[in-house]
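Checklist before submission:
- one chain only
- standard amino acids only
- sequence pasted in full

Submission:
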Amino acid sequence: MQSIALIGLAAQHTSAAEQAGDSASESSWRMLSQRRFGVAGDAAAMALQLAKLNSTVNLFSCVGDDQGGRQLVGELKRSGVGHRYITCKAGLSTASSIAISQGNALQRWLYPGSFEQFDLADIEVSVLLKHDRIHVSDCGLMALLLQGGLAEILCTAVALRKRTSLSIGAQEPVSFEALRCLLPHLDCLFIDVAVLQRWFPHDSQASAYRKLSGSGPGQLVVLEGERACLCHGDSPAVSYALETPLQSAEPSFNSFVVGVLTGLGRQLGLEKALGMGLQLAGGSSADMNKALAAQVVEQASADNSRNKREALATE
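Returned file contents:
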C-alpha cells in the first residue's frame, strides 16, 4: 500500500441555522449542537476519507494555537490521519468553514485564519519525500506558488521516482498561467470541468483538453458530472461513466480524487481507479470499501492466472 502526503488546507467546520426571533424585525442564530464541529478544508477532508479507506496518509498543513486547532488535530488523529506535520501557528486562529442555512438556502464562508501564514518553510521536505505519493490540494495553492519553491520540491520528488499529483476544484481561483511551472512535474492533474471552461473560455472542450494535457502533466483527469475524462498528451480524451445511479445530488470532486488515489495506491491501474473515484463521488465510503475489496480479489485472481500461464510457458 502506498503512503500519501497531502498538502493543503485544514479547517474547522461549524453549522448554524437561522430561526425566527421574538419579532418580525428580529432573527436569532441557533448553533446546531449535533453538527457544531467538523473537519473541513479540502486537504483535511480528503485525508479523513483516505484514512477511512485504510490508506496511509500524512497531512502537511497548519492550525492556530486555539481550541479549534486542538479539536481539529484531535479528530484527525482519532481517525487515523498522520498529524505530526501539522504546524501550530502561535497567536493565530484556526481556519474556519461556516455554513448557515436560511430556509432552503445555504450560504458558506471560509475564514483562512492561520492558513494565510502557511508556507513552504512549514513543510519538512525530507519527510515529505519519503512518501510514495505527494498530492497538493488546490485550496491555498496560490499562496504557495507565489512563494516559489513548490515546483522544485515536485521536481525532486519526480527524480526520486515518487508520484506527484494536484487537484483543482471548481471554486478555486488559481490561474492557468500561475500553474504552468508545476505541470511538467505532475504525474496526474485532477481538475473540475468548470475550471477548464474558465481557463479556456473560447476553446471547444476537446481543444481545451489538448492545450492543458500538452502542457506537461503525465495524465489529465477531468471530472464532468457523472463522467471522468482521461487525457494524455495529444491523444483523444477517453470518457468513463458512472455505472450506477448517483446517491448524492452532485458528485463530490474531492471524493472522486480520493477514490482514484485509493485505487492507484492499491496498484489497480488508472482505469479501475477512475471507476472507484466515480463510485465514491456518487456514493459512500462503505460502497467504496466493498468495491475496493472486490477489485483486490479480482486483481489477485488475474495475477494468479497470469503467473500460472507464465509458469506453463517456461516448462
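Reviewer check: Residues 180 and 215 are 7 Å apart (CA to CA).
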